[in-house]
Automatic annotation (TrEMBL), chain B:
It comes from the Bacteria. This is Uncharacterized protein.
TrEMBL record, chain C:
Gene3D superfamilies: Formate dehydrogenase/DMSO reductase domain. This is Polysulfide reductase. One of its GO terms (cellular component) is plasma membrane. It holds the Pfam family NrfD. InterPro entries: Electron_transfer_protein, NrfD-like. The lineage of its organism: Bacteria, Pseudomonadati, Pseudomonadota, Alphaproteobacteria, Acetobacterales. It is a multi-pass membrane protein. Keywords: Cell membrane, Membrane, Transmembrane, Transmembrane helix. The chain crosses the membrane at residues 40-63, 75-95, 115-137. Belongs to the NrfD family. Its main location: membrane. The keyword Nucleotidyltransferase does not apply. It is found in: Cell membrane.
Length: 303, 87, 330
């Protein structure tokens, strides 16, 4: 793919091949045109969500619902700022959080987001995904794009992935009895398309690409933000940083945040639940074995 | 339980969009009690099959719970529309 | 123009060991397990009871306990509740029960639910064989019976090993999640579950021995049950201390009633057995009461932990306090 600066944007040279703006046929490797990346099996893909440019338009939420044919849920109003979506669920795979920080005086307001922090939350597609490590049926698996997907023809709704996820993402739908979460648009990736949310994001707050690329892009963006006076910016889910602690390593879908993780409803230092399997099993067995030895002593006593 | 007939427009996992003969579109989720499985839905989409869905409301979502899907014979395709036109 | 000095990446990270109580509108940051606590709690209780019943029967047989035949038979038969009723409970709790067999597609060492499935499978096979040989031996001619007892004596060993796993893996099932209360003290919770299993199995078999008129074995089993309770008490003190230092103990109030029964079930048996040791006439009743208290306590320990865990998952402040760098495993 030849990347060139076209009209100030780093776009693929291929855009010149398509002067029309409406298409009656799918374009081969469309993501090259929309995200500057060719999607090929065997590589790692993910999202870099830069919250400093999010305007809270919820285009990502809508695009996700549309493409994935997800019904509206969480009906009603929450009263919590403009967030009536509430949380990620079996039927909601993108969730825009709204944090109003209006206590500061106007002169102290940050030069972006007008002291509203907005963040489009999504499944993190963890490098070492706890949901997948917990799944006893193998329904949850790593795809050829290094994303984490629930295979609907295998999941039996045991629900064990739900408490395993350190971010409260994956959810059971009691109606169809299966676990659901963001698939990073598995079907679109197979067709060479950029995921629906990233494609629809008008500010490029959600960027889709190869994880290594995105991490570099994020590092540059961070440097820039620090240089222009946003020292609070940091990456959540970058290798071994906040959000990728305790053996998760890194998150394929990571974020640039400007306040503490908890403000965005994210844990600062999540753990990898499977690390607790061995210590727990061994301690339990030791207790039973010890008591069994006591039983041997008791039983072999003559009376 | 209610019944509705229409065309399967598209499917995703256990969800499918049905266009009724009156041209309304409704979202259904295949219930875990249904004998049909989610992996049987995509062929219906490819054929744009006409089906009869037995369903229930679900207050938690804007959509319905599908309990049974009966594929209608192909020759009846369009007949519904004609009937509709006659009314 | 003044430039703010570039902070080093590590300085930009919000490293703070103190959690200031921030939440996102108090919304949960985690999803509680979608298990039905009474169903899965019953399974965990049964798994413990049956697994340990097999362990006790095997230990009694191998240690050649005097007059052990009745105890061994009852232990082997009691253990059959897990493969039967226990499996039904597990399948019932699935949200797509007709696909229960998908559990057997893979074996996943990172998933206690997968480990448990295979432990239950192994236990069912070996315990089933042992129980079948036992039942058959009770019916056939002595010559055949000796052969069948030989078979049971062989199969009971792997059955007992699986039984020990069955009585304890359920703790790691809970601990290997992100639910704060379950994840905070994996080792002591496992000791609690394991010893509570031992107490419940010993209590149930003690009661049966008493009613079969085998006093001395009943007394030994009662002692074993009390020893297990003592271990459980010790481990629960460790767990409680961990919850308190991590600042997540408040969630336990959600299961206050269940916890009270569980606590009575671990403490009352000591008093009841002491009284039984004194009073001659009502000794049997008091000992039975102690056994029943142990069984009720063992059941409530499991459901109580499950309820409290769900509540801790719903409390964002608990999770955020728990998910701090200071709490990471070293
Ligand atoms: S964020 Fe949760 S659901 Fe997504 S991959 Fe990680 S553990 Fe699985
Ligand atoms: S609910 Fe489905 S995806 Fe989740 S752990 Fe169970 S089988 Fe796996």
């Amino acid at each position: 793919m030849g990347a060139a600066m076209i009209a100030g944007l780093p776009l693929s040279n291929r855009v010149r091949d398509y002067p029309e703006s409406e298409f009656r046929h799918p374009l081969p490797h469309e993501a090259e045109l929309t995200a500057g990346v060719r999607i090929e099996p065997g590589r790692s893909y993910g999202f870099f969500t830069d919250t400093t440019v999010c305007i809270g338009c919820k285009a990502c939420e809508v695009a996700c619902k549309e493409w994935n044919n997800l019904p509206a849920d969480n009906l009603g109003l929450t009263g919590d700022s403009y967030d009536n979506t509430g949380h990620l669920s079996a039927n909601t795979w993108r969730h825009v959080a709204f944090i109003e920080q209006m206590a500061d005086r106007p002169t102290e307001m940050r030069p972006f987001q007008s002291n509203w922090l907005m963040m489009s939350d999504v499944c993190k597609h963890c490098h070492n995904p706890p949901c997948m490590e917990a799944c006893p049926t193998g329904a949850l698996f790593k795809t050829e794009f290094d994303t984490v997907v629930v295979q609907q023809d295998i999941c039996n709704g045991c629900g064990y992935c739900v408490p395993a996820c350190p971010f409260g993402v994956v959810d059971l739908n009691p109606l169809d009895g299966k676990a659901h979460k963001c698939t990073l648009c598995y079907d679109r990736l197979k067709g060479g398309l950029e995921p629906a949310c990233a494609k629809s994001c008008p500010t490029d707050s959600i960027q889709f690409g190869e994880v290594a690329d995105l991490q570099q892009r994020a590092a540059k963006r961070l440097e820039h933000l620090h240089a222009v006076g946003v020292p609070s910016a940091y990456l959540y889910g970058a290798p071994d940083g906040p959000g990728a602690t305790g053996g998760l390593k890194y998150l394929n879908a990571f974020f640039l945040l400007t306040d503490r993780p908890e403000v965005y409803n994210l844990p600062e230092a999540p753990t990898r639940p499977s690390d607790r399997v061995a210590p727990s099993l061994l301690s339990g067995l030791a207790a039973v074995a010890g008591l069994a030895v006591a039983a041997v002593a008791l039983f072999s006593r003559r009376d | 339980m209610k019944r509705v007939e229409g065309t399967v427009l598209f499917t995703q996992e256990s969800r499918f969009m049905l266009e009724t003969d009156a041209g309304e579109r409704h979202l259904f989720i295949l219930s875990h009690k249904a004998s049909a499985e989610a992996q049987q839905l995509p062929p219906l989409q490819h054929r744009q099959a006409r089906v009869r869905v037995t369903y229930d409301n679900d207050p938690a979502i804007i959509g319905y719970a599908a309990h049974a899907i009966d594929v209608l014979p192909e020759q009846r395709r369009g007949q519904g529309a004609r009937q509709w036109a006659r009314q | 123009m003044n430039f703010i000095p570039l902070p080093s990446p590590s300085a930009a990270r919000p490293v703070s060991d103190a959690y200031d109580g921030t939440t996102y509108y108090g919304r949960p940051a985690l999803k509680p397990a979608p298990f039905e606590n009474s169903v899965v709690g019953s399974y965990i209780f049964l798994a413990g009871l049956c697994g340990v019943a097999q362990v006790i029967a095997t230990v009694a047989d191998v240690a050649r306990a005097p007059r052990r035949e009745g105890l061994v038979r009852r232990g082997r038969l009691l253990s059959m509740l897990a493969p039967t009723l226990g499996s039904v409970l597990l399948v019932y709790d699935l949200h797509t029960p007709k696909r229960f067999y998908n559990m057997l597609r893979i074996a996943r060492p990172t998933s206690p639910m997968s480990i448990g499935t295979w432990i239950l499978m192994g236990f069912s096979i070996f315990s089933g064989a042992t129980a079948a040989a036992q039942v058959a031996a009770d019916w056939v001619r002595p010559g055949w019976a000796r052969l069948l007892h030989g078979i049971a004596r062989t199969t009971q060993v792997p059955a007992a090993v699986a039984g020990a796993g069955l009585g304890t893996y359920t703790a790691s099932l809970l601990s290997s999640t992100s639910t704060p209360l379950w994840a905070a003290a994996p080792k002591s919770l496992a000791v609690q579950f394991g010893s509570s299993s031992m107490a419940s199995g010993a209590a149930a078999l003690a009661m049966a021995e008493r009613h079969a008129g085998s006093r001395s074995l009943a007394r030994k089993l009662d002692t074993l049950a009390l020893a297990a309770l003592a271990v459980e008490l010790g481990a629960s003190v460790v767990s409680e201390a961990t919850y308190r230092t991590r600042g997540i103990s408040a969630a336990e109030d959600a299961a206050a009633d269940t916890r009270t029964i569980a606590q009575i079930g671990t403490i009352a048996p000591f008093a009841l057995q002491m009284l039984a040791g004194k009073g001659k006439r009502s000794a049997g009743i008091l000992s039975d009461l102690a056994s029943l208290a142990i069984l009720a306590g063992s059941f409530c320990l499991r459901t109580g932990v499950m309820e409290a865990g769900d509540e801790s998952a719903r409390r964002p402040q608990d999770y955020f306090r728990f998910a701090k760098p200071g709490n990471l495993p070293k």
